[in-house]
Design a protein that fits this description.
This protein is an alpha/beta fold and 338 residues long. It is built from 14 helices and 8 strands. Helix 9 runs parallel beside helix 11.
């Protein structure tokens, strides 16, 4: 399939390389002449010197993929308005706010130009590993673009197949998914980012707790603003954080690294003492009560001077009974249910 890529940054450039490797014809454009000329020389891609030249080189129905900052999307679409026509497809693969996607799709609908929002996850490693794609827009248009999405996605072999998944079909286990109408793709990516940032925050808090596990060895500040440390003798550990991080990378039998996927929180909880009493070895909640284990991690997380909000609350939340389908809150502490 022929398409154009606007934006040749850390992700856009590698996406073009991956598309070309799969046999697609890609015309590239970057506002910086040196960037696009160097890229064309390195890859063999056709570089357009302007958006007008880019549009002229495309055969209808034109497919134009934008990999530009969210703040630049509207301006770029405005520049393209007079260069595309009915039946053409514009894809925003950046991190736009999904509400903006809804607006843009409505604005373009009377012209017959199709708008697709695509949450793109993969970062600088996407060239080799592929990109996880969360897609919103008109379903028929998304199906037309399937060869493009399939070329960018990680593919079936990127993760072990779950039992029974082969009976469900679809593209999800290939690494790309049609999520729904306009905005759905970026909505799913928005939540994905929130989870990812929460995981990173949990790591930061956890390592901060470990870093200050020797606070009992030092003279404590005595003033009106500092909470006194109870039982300093319980916090006298000089821990090697680099080695702890390394051993955590080997914390799961299937080799899943803490920095990727849902297993990351399970590794963190288990390693810091958060999850042993409430999760089985697959991260599923055990029946018959949460046990005492998850509470242990909350104590240092909330007592040490460098407190960890996520690490302190997560064990407490996890120890609460699962809400019923009706949405009934926990009777133990309704303030901790969310």
């Amino acid at each position: 399939m022929q398409l154009a890529m606007i934006g040749l940054g850390r992700m856009g450039g590698n996406m073009v390389r991956r598309l070309m490797a799969a046999g697609h014809e890609v015309i590239v454009y970057s506002a910086t002449a040196k960037t696009r000329e160097t890229f064309a020389k390195e890859t063999g891609a056709v570089a357009a010197s302007s958006l007008a030249e880019m549009a002229a080189r495309l055969k209808p129905p034109r497919v134009v993929w934008l990999m530009v900052p969210a703040a630049s999307v509207d301006n770029t679409l405005g520049e393209l308005a007079g260069m595309v026509q009915k039946g053409d497809i514009l894809i925003d693969g950046g991190n736009s706010y999904y509400i903006d996607d809804i607006r843009r799709a409505k604005e373009l609908a009377p012209t017959g130009i199709h708008y697709v929002d695509c949450g793109t996850s993969g970062g600088v490693w996407g060239l080799e590993r592929g990109y996880c794609l969360m897609i919103g827009g008109e379903e028929a248009v998304v199906k037309y673009l399937d060869p493009v999405f399939a070329a960018l996605a990680p593919g079936l072999d990127a993760a072990s197949r779950l039992p029974g998944r082969e009976k469900l079909g679809g593209t999800a286990e290939h690494g790309y998914l049609y999520c729904g109408p306009s905005g759905a793709g970026h909505f799913v990516k928005m939540v994905h980012n929130g989870i990812e940032y929460g995981i990173m925050a949990a790591y930061a808090e956890g390592f901060n707790i470990l870093h200050h596990a020797n606070v009992g060895n030092y003279q404590q500040t005595v003033d009106a603003e500092t909470t006194p440390l109870r039982n300093p003798g319980e916090y006298q550990y000089d821990l090697n954080l680099r080695d702890i991080a390394e051993v955590w990378r080997r914390g799961r039998p299937d080799g899943e690294r803490p920095a990727h996927g849902p297993g990351s929180l399970r590794v963190l909880w288990a390693s810091v003492g958060f999850g042993r009493g409430a999760l089985d070895d697959q991260g599923r909640r055990r029946r018959g009560g949460a046990g005492a284990g998850p509470h242990y991690g909350a104590i240092p997380a909330l007592q040490l001077p460098r407190r960890g909000r996520l690490c302190g609350q997560a064990p407490l939340r996890h120890a609460l009974p699962v809400r019923r389908a009706s949405g009934e809150a926990s009777r133990e502490d309704p303030t901790l249910t969310g």
